[in-house]
Specification:
172 residues, globular, alpha/beta, 7 helices, 3-stranded mixed β-sheet
C-alpha cells in the first residue's frame, strides 16, 4: 500500500510538471520571431516596412526595444491591434494569451489576408489556426509550427528550418 501511495505521488508530480508550461520570455519570442520571418521564402509579401501588430502590450514593448533592427534589410513597425478586424491591415500578427477566445476568428482572418500568425500559447497552434508559437522543452525554448496553418497563411519555410522546429499538423 505504501509503495502504491509513493508511486501515485510521483505520477502526480510528473503530470503536474508537464501540465505547467513554462513560458518563453517575451524578449526571446520577439528575437525568434524576427529570425523566423527571415526564413519565409515568400518574405517579400510582408512589404517594406514589415508591418506587425499585436494585442499584447508586453510584446509591443519588447518589439519597440528592437527598433533599428532590420529583417532581411527591411525595417519593421509594430502597432496595437484592438480587434481581430485589424488583421486585414497587417501581414504579421502576434496574438497573446489575453485573446485565447479569439484565436479561431484571428486565424480565419489571418488565412484570408495571408497574414502569418504567431501565438503566445501552444494550444492555438496545436488545435486552432495559429501558425507558430514557442514553448520550453527540457529547459530550452522550442519553436512549435503548424505547417498546414502557415501554408494557408501564405508562408513557405525551407526543409532545413522545419527540422529545427516541433512540427504539428499536416506536412503536405
Amino acid at each position: 500500500m505504501r509503495n502504491k501511495l509513493i508511486l501515485l505521488l510521483i505520477a502526480l508530480f510528473v503530470l503536474s510538471f508537464q501540465t505547467y508550461s513554462q513560458d518563453v520570455p517575451k524578449g526571446l519570442q520577439v528575437k525568434l520571431m524576427l529570425k523566423i520571418l527571415s526564413y519565409d521564402r515568400n518574405f517579400d509579401r510582408f512589404g517594406d516596412p514589415v508591418k506587425i501588430c499585436s494585442n499584447s502590450d508586453s510584446f509591443i514593448k519588447e518589439m519597440n526595444a528592437l527598433k533599428g533592427m532590420t529583417i532581411k534589410g527591411k525595417n519593421f513597425t509594430v502597432e496595437k491591434m484592438s480587434s481581430p478586424d485589424d488583421i486585414a491591415n497587417y501581414k504579421v500578427i502576434y496574438v497573446g494569451k489575453e485573446w485565447e477566445s479569439n484565436y479561431a476568428t484571428c486565424s480565419e482572418k489571418a488565412a484570408a489576408n495571408k497574414s502569418l500568425m504567431f501565438c503566445e500559447t501552444e494550444s492555438a497552434v496545436m488545435s486552432g489556426g495559429g501558425g507558430i508559437s514557442f514553448k520550453v522543452v527540457a529547459g530550452k525554448p522550442k519553436i512549435v509550427l503548424n505547417n498546414g496553418n502557415v501554408k494557408s497563411q501564405g508562408t513557405d519555410f525551407p526543409a532545413g528550418f522545419l527540422k529545427i522546429t516541433v512540427v504539428v499538423g499536416s506536412m503536405n
